[in-house]
Amino acid sequence: MSIVLSHVNHIYDEDTAMAHPALIDVNIDIQDGEFIGLIGHTGSGKSTLIQHMNGLIEPTSGHIFFDGKDIGEQGFNKKTLRANVGLVFQYPEHQLFESDCFKDVCFGPRNLGLPQKEVELRAFEALSQVGFDPNYFYQSPFDLSGGQKRRVAIAGVLAMKPRVLILDEPTAGLDPKGREDILGLISSLHKEMKITVILVSHSMEDVADYVDRIIVMNKGRVAFDAPPKEVFSHYKELEEIGLAAPQVTYCMQDLATAGFDVDTSVTTLQEAKEEILKALSKC
Amino acid sequence: MLRDITLGQYYRADSVIHRLDPRVKIVATFVFIISLFLVKNFIGYLVAGLFLCLCIKLSTVPPKFIFRGMKAIFFLLLITMVFNLFLTPGEALLSFWKIKITKEGIKLALMMGVRLVFLITGSSLMTLTTTPNNLTDGLEDLLKPLKKIRVPVHEISMMMSIALRFIPILMEETDKIMKAQMARCADFESGSLINRARSLVPILVPLFISAFRRANDLAMAMEARCYRGGEGRTKMKPLIYKKEDAIAYLVLVIYLALIIVLGRILFS
Ligand SMILES: Nc1ncnc2c1ncn2[C@@H]1O[C@H](COP(=O)(O)OP(=O)(O)O)[C@@H](O)[C@H]1O
Ligand SMILES: [Mg+2]
Q1: What is the pLDDT of residue A208?
Q2: Do A198 and A36 meet the contact criterion of CB atoms below 8 Å apart?
Q3: N or C: which end of chain A has fewer CB within 10 A?
Q4: Distance (Å) from CA B229 to ligand 2 centroid
Q5: How does strand A35-40 pair with strand A213-218?
Q6: Is the whole-model pTM more than 0.90?
Q7: CB distance B206–A94 less than 8 Å?
Q8: How far is ligand 1, taken at its centre, from the CA of residue A34, in Å?
Q9: What residues does each domain of chain B span?
């Protein structure tokens, strides 16, 4: 299971005065089981990029391979692709339409043409996976809180049993508690279900704790594609493109310049705590 | 596919036509439409066509963009032409069974066709070169005299500007919702007519909810800024005529004169 993007370019509104490139020569190779953070400033092309991965947008030039098959080729089954590469859009709760949550989650698997039993089984499973309270299964999704609605929407995609799950800014518009909940949920989905996850965000802070690879987009190009430690070591360049490394990176850099013997490449709060305690015990 | 509807969509560019005062463009469109109904012969249509082409050229809007809007009225056009072709009495050229095609019918069908195409092209050109805000500002100003007879001109123009403003927003929203449902393997294209109509529900419900939410937000925002109708309201950018606008009016008068002289009097 792999997604390979090879020299992908995308120009919106080609042949008009508004034409402008949203993706420029993007080359990415995504392997099975990875947990990837896709980071970039607003307008850097993140959403455009992920919509290429399940065939919602076609590249102006370049090729996308799913499991070695070119998805732009004639006769390629887009439905299977979309069931395998689940895409949760930004503000996914805005796409809910059924009279109750359970029915809404059934929409995806039913479109796959599965028998009714299987559809309901999957919907039930998906709602449990996202930790949705069974008491609300048959309530209207419009009566729920923002975070709960978002869970239902994510379940709607999970019910198709995708092998790759892409989430576009899943924490946008949530309070800190809701953010942590959703991020924790995504992380546990990755661990327990062993699916590939691509998490889109404009905040390093959001992804630093969870992912094992970060792709940084800048004005339609891939600026960095490396493990978090390596990406954050370029924190000066990140600032230039309007992004910031996590607070921890700055803290450790400052400590190092102040003469403490600490490893500046740590990325999570936990690691930083251990490093600082170690350094202090040496004093 | 949703982008095919050009009516009510602004094409950003910096041309003479774009810079004209919106009132000039509204009056010009109005005059152009009237002129189409004044014309009685081929020469007149030629003049109107040339005038239209000149305006399109000056506007720098790619013709492809303008004619995209034509697809939407293709059937209307076809029906109009067919009706005129078969139902106009006169000298028969071809006849079989009860249907006959007359010389007058062909002439009328062609005239109606050209007239409709020009009409749509002309009004598309106006909306393509004028921002919705400018358009309604211009309209409000032109309709001001009607306030005397208690027509709520300001309210009408405010409603229009909001409606126009919402067209691109709702189209973008539709696009987004469609994609989101397609990501859940929704299929809008195949199946029977009933199935296809049913497949629109997952788009329409979220779209309506979003429209109501936006309307509610907008109403709140307007109220928060103390909007209370047009009474005593001033404009940040009042409309002021410039030299080019005067020239444009002059060109318009010359065009109208030409149409009347060539299209009605000389060759009739
Ligand atoms: N449907 C569209 N039509 C035209 N331009 C678009 C469309 N969607 C996005 N863009 C443009 O493409 C660029 C990249 O957008 P996007 O992929 O949404 O960025 P991000 O998700 O990183 O904020 C932006 O400049 C945006 O204005
Ligand atoms: Mg985005």
Answers
A1: 83
A2: yes
A3: C
A4: 37
A5: parallel
A6: no
A7: yes
A8: 26
A9: 2-266
CB-closest option in A16, A17, A107 to B184: A107
Q: Which amino acid is at B249?
A: Y
Torsion region of B88: left, alpha or beta (phi above 0 gives left; psi -120 to 50 gives alpha): beta
Contacts of B62 in chain A (CB under 8 A): 15-17
Ligand sitting nearest the alpha carbon of A202: 1
Token representation of residue A169:
């800014």
Note the pLDDT of residue B7.
Answer: 46
Ligand with the closest atom to the CA of A51: 1
Q: Does B168 touch chain A (CB under 8 A)?
A: no
pLDDT at B222: 92
pLDDT of residue B4: 44
The 10 Å CB-count burial string (b at 16+, else e) for B230-255 is: eeeeeeeeebeeeeebeebbeebeeb
Instruction: Identify whether the C-beta of residue A147 lies closer than 8 Å to the C-beta of residue A176.
Output: no
What is the CA(B115)–ligand 1 centre distance, in A? Answer: 39
Find the range with the poorest average confidence among A3-12, A242-251, B2-11, B74-83.
B2-11
Region B16-28: mean pLDDT is 94
Quick one: pLDDT band at residue A132, thresholds 50, 70, 90? Answer: very high
pLDDT band for B5, please (50, 70, 90 cuts): very low
